[in-house]
Protein: Lytic transglycosylase domain-containing protein
Organism: Roseovarius faecimaris
Amino acid sequence: MGPFVFRAAFAVFICSSLTGIAAADPATGSLLSARQPLFSMQGGAKTAVTSASLFVGEAEGGLFAALPGRLDTPLQRGGRTAARLRDLIASAEAGRAGYDAVQHGARIKPPKAPTHMTLQEIYAWIDATPGQPHAIGRYQFIPATLRHSAKRLGLSPKTRFSPATQDRLADLLLGDAGLMKVKTGEITLDAFMLNLARIWAGLPVASGRSYYDGVAGNKATMSYATYSRQVRAILGG
């Protein structure tokens, strides 16, 4: 068993034990190291970015099905509130790399900027480069989450992984976290913030740590005071 396989298997065991919900994907590294920078792919050139690749997702059913704020119907138009939340999440996930961010641990990068690729081209890159992490885009989608979310939205494989597409996919996850329910008072703001932190590991829980702190190197990239202040400003809580 090579060192990568061992670390991935260990992450599966630890995460399953701690949460009972989420587990790392040994093939793709679904729980990604917060110590690894991202790259922005621009015109075939890559630029190092100091932010971390922290998106935590699951295959069909998994984490998202367990979220108490899960909506049967995804957000169709997130509006200004969703846009501001996406900006906050992106600051923890991709930093300045933005929509063309590619996780640094991917030794073989995509052949072109992610925003210039179709979903099928991204899937082909993933399938052709096993054994490395593949988190991609402004919200650092991992393969299982990308495929599952695209399927839920009915996106064709020919759909371009454009900023608009990435925003739609992120809005789907904001719906899963309970954005509409917190706006109508069905869940509390604190519950919504926790749900977001259970999806994106760069966001902290009340202790100030990531929900997945220490798992595969994950850690929060902002303080809880900052996170809480920004979310409350966005939602008026």
